[in-house]
Amino acid sequence: MTTQTLQTTSFLTDFRSMSTFGATPGGGVDRQAATSADGQTRNWFRGLVEGHGFEVRYDQVGNQFALLELVPGAPYIAIGSHLDSQPLGGRFDGAYGVLAGAHAAIRVASLLTSEPQFNIAVINWFNEEGCRFKPSMMGSSVFTGKIPAEQVLATTDPSGTSVREALEAIGTIGDFSLDVAAYLEIHIEQGRSLEDDGLTIGLVESTWGANKYEFVVHGEQAHTGATLIADRQDALLGASALVVAAREVADDYSTDEHMVITSCGEFNVFPNSPVVVASRVNLLVDVRSTDAAVLAAADAELHRRVSLIEQRFNVRISQGASHIWASKAYDAAGLALAASCASALGLPHGVVRTLAGHDSTNMKDIVPTIMLFVPSAEGISHNEREFTSDADMLAGVDLLTEVVSRVVAGEFVQP
Amino acid sequence: MTTQTLQTTSFLTDFRSMSTFGATPGGGVDRQAATSADGQTRNWFRGLVEGHGFEVRYDQVGNQFALLELVPGAPYIAIGSHLDSQPLGGRFDGAYGVLAGAHAAIRVASLLTSEPQFNIAVINWFNEEGCRFKPSMMGSSVFTGKIPAEQVLATTDPSGTSVREALEAIGTIGDFSLDVAAYLEIHIEQGRSLEDDGLTIGLVESTWGANKYEFVVHGEQAHTGATLIADRQDALLGASALVVAAREVADDYSTDEHMVITSCGEFNVFPNSPVVVASRVNLLVDVRSTDAAVLAAADAELHRRVSLIEQRFNVRISQGASHIWASKAYDAAGLALAASCASALGLPHGVVRTLAGHDSTNMKDIVPTIMLFVPSAEGISHNEREFTSDADMLAGVDLLTEVVSRVVAGEFVQP
Question: Which of A54, A136, B169, B215 is 20 to 30 A from A76, alpha carbon to alpha carbon?
């Protein structure tokens, strides 16, 4: 058995082992942030990398750092993604990137051909998904200074458990901190453009712009039978109209050149009883586009529709927290380096944009960052049926290994 | 102090005591079926009526019977309503009718002027509201043979607790059964017609027809950011469109003569995570009208819209359980008797229809039934701000006493 075959077998074996944590009957995983399933996955990952000589540390918000020292005292190149998942999520989203990072680091360390300039850290970011605790990309947001750690630690899940309590319960919290010189991430595409174009590798050029809003529709609790239509202030009706309006905005504002995507992923009705007109609905709505001007126009139209819905249905709609991510480019030199590596390995590749947020969306604002994609079958994601082939996963690990090797050798940033 | 003043004071004192069970900060009550708050209210009611010589029994689904024997061996006239409430419900809905029944029975027993032909039972029906356990009017549905007891006992709440377990936990379940000769109920109107017309008493002529449906909208779980609009099968979008369509059906099919009322009171989204396109929404939709033909037309249009929504938004909508209540008249002789009593007491009264379901909706199908209303301020109901004045409550007790007195004397049905 050649070394290459051994490594190939090892990655797929490790991937299958990892996928048993929080496994669901439908072939996916449920590893919401800081649940026991997330904790078990973190402990398994710790054991795996410690077996390869890494040292594992945690920072104050539970980000997990697997450190591989190649040059004592040198700065670190970080490779990251996340092991947490959506409820009934797929087994590739995030987890693939963390494991690929570990295997790339192990291979680079074992096959060093030139003098390394950096050490390597593989990071498992806390709570990228943002389902149990909001917002998403929580760990990397704290790491990059966008959200204070204290705010995150005090954030509670629907049952009232705080992030601090949940992290302490699974024992993955500490006080470590790390200086990072550059950041690399590989992830499944979660879209279908690579598959449609017959490509194995996506080189991510930029993020889409995304505006995310928490809306609260306020009505007046009433009897569903006895209350006349004219007297109703039906929060569920207002919120439903807002969900439909958001889709209409996407349809109306998308152009051939720039898509607009709108969604509502969370929608909570109060008191949600069969014979009660709802008094309140809390919902999250987001608007995304590749183009800042198109996004601004769609966003303005969404807000105009909010006012119309308030008038038409006799409800009041307030806007709570909002999170705005402007469309931003990844490092151009990194994109060129990754393209050069893909060409060297003979991997079909192309430039893509990411519609989804990733931890690299945060990291690229503080250090030079390279973001890579492998294909998602039919673009299905956040779904138990999410799938990336073994061949595509292995191609991604090969590419990441090549990129890490060159970055560690000083081809991307200087120590 | 005269006897009348003593009784007046006693009813209002008892009403205020009763309203402390499950009391909410906003002035309402939360006494969902077979919760500890419901159990405490039932125990309080048992103590109250036992102090007046009643004997209290429970049937197999927790209906509570307070028996006052006037003529050993004679059949029973039942007066009923319910002590359970909506979450954050008002303190009048149901509870007023049970307490008014007890006070009317006590007064009739103490002031008997002619030979009684019947005994009196005051019934606190189990789970009229149907919020914790579905469907509503559960206890009276079993009593009248519309739903098997075993089905009800096996019904679970969202946490998996069955009706049987919940009733055993509060200790109000038994094996009693009762033959009833006639049924009387007094309730708050939960609409505004009495207030608008300046009336104190509503004599309920008929129920509205009501079709209640459980719909399930099936989509496909996906990523809210990365999944293209064209690829989405968004269950939340389909369900939202159905809620909006239901309101449009009410607007389009109401006539000057016959109103159509549509509602959605319960709406549950799966998996309901911020960045996941929903795979499924379960929702309850009901359509009501005073006229059978108008109801049928509105219902057909609602179902036509369901098909359109399936096509437009690429979802599948299945229909689960449905509950159909045809518009039905109350006993004409009972209506005349109640009108005669109201006139005798000088109470301004008029004939009304009920948009809401009541336990009398079930009981009228098996025995001669009289249904009475007192006003609801601004028609507000299923709301902590639900309100009926002391004067209106007392007028209702006076009228109910007069009606019970005549029914017990044999003026409505024969023993």
Answer: A136
Parts of chain B with a pLDDT under 50:
1-2
pLDDT band at A323 (very low <50, low <70, confident <90, very high): confident
A277 contacts B382 by C-beta, under 8 angstroms: yes
Q: pLDDT category, A1, cuts 50, 70, 90?
A: very low
The predicted pLDDT at position A305 comes to 98
Rounded CA separation A322/B275 (Å): 14
Name residue, tokens 């470590």. A176
Q: What pLDDT is stored for residue A3 in this prediction?
A: 55
pLDDT of residue B4: 57
How far, in Å, are A76, B15, B40 from residue A409 at the CA level? Answer: 12, 82, 74
Q: Which CATH number fits domain A209-325: 3.40.190.10, 3.40.50.2000, 3.30.70.360, 1.20.58.100?
A: 3.30.70.360
Tell me whether residues B225 and A261 touch, CB distance under 8 A: yes
Q: Bin A327: left if φ > 0, else alpha if -120 < ψ < 50, else beta.
A: beta
Q: Are B99 and B44 in contact (CB under 8 A)?
A: no
Q: What is the pTM of this model?
A: 0.79
User: How high is the ipTM of this complex?
Assistant: 0.80
Q: Can you point out the beta strands (E) in B248-358? A: 260-270, 276-277, 280-289, 316-325, 349-354
Task: Tell me how far apart the terminal alpha carbons of chain B are, to the nearest angstrom.
Answer: 37
**How much is the pLDDT for A113?**
75
- Averaged pLDDT for residues A289-318: 96
Q: Which of the 8 DSSP states describes residue B162?
A: B
Give the model's pLDDT for residue B1. 40
Note the pLDDT of residue A161: 96
Query: Mean pLDDT across chain A, nearest whole number?
Result: 94
Domain ranges of chain B: 3-208+328-408, 209-325
Cis peptide before B135 (omega within 30 of 0): yes
Strand partners, B171: none
The torsion angle over the Cα atoms of residues B376, B381, B385 and B391, rounded to 10 degrees, is 20
Q: Which residue in chain A is spatially nearest to B93 when comparing CA positions?
A: A223
For the stretch B136-177, pLDDT in tens is: 999 999 999 999 999 999 999 999 999 999 999 999 999 999
Does A35 lie at the interface with B, CB-CB under 8 angstroms? no
Whether A189 and chain B come into contact, CB under 8 Å, resolves to yes
* Opening angle at CA A54, ends A50 and A57, nearest 5: 90
C-alpha span between B257 and B291 (Å, rounded): 9
Max CA distance (Å), chain A: 80
CA distance B243 to B217: 12
Does B377 contact A at CB distance below 8 Å?
Answer: no
Q: Which CATH superfamily is domain A3-208+328-408 in?
A: Zn peptidases (3.40.630.10)
What digits encode the pLDDT tens for the residues A192-240? 999 999 999 999 999 888 999 999 999 999 888 778 898 999 999 999 9
| Cβ neighbours for A271, distance < 8 A, ≥ 6 positions apart | A221, A278, A279, B86, B87, B88, B131
Q: Residue B276: list chain A partners with CB under 8 A.
A: 86-87, 131, 265, 382
> Which one, of B329, B337, B377, B334, lies nearest residue B353 by Cα?
B329
- Judged on CB neighbours under 10 Å (0-12, 13-18, 19+), B257 is exposed
- Length in residues, chain B: 415
- How far apart are the C-alpha atoms of A322 and A324, rounded to whole Å? 6
Question: How many residues in chain A?
Answer: 415
Please check whether residue B239 is in contact with residue B283, taking contact to mean a CB–CB distance below 8 angstroms: yes
Residue of chain A minimizing CA distance to B231: A379
User: B359 to each of A4, B46, B52, B141, B151, how far by Cα in Å?
Assistant: 75, 20, 25, 8, 18
- Amino acid at position A141, single letter: S
Burial B155-176 (b: 16+ CB within 10 A, else e): bebeeeebbbebbeebebbbee
Asked if B118 and B108 count as a contact pair (C-beta separation under 8 A), the reply is no
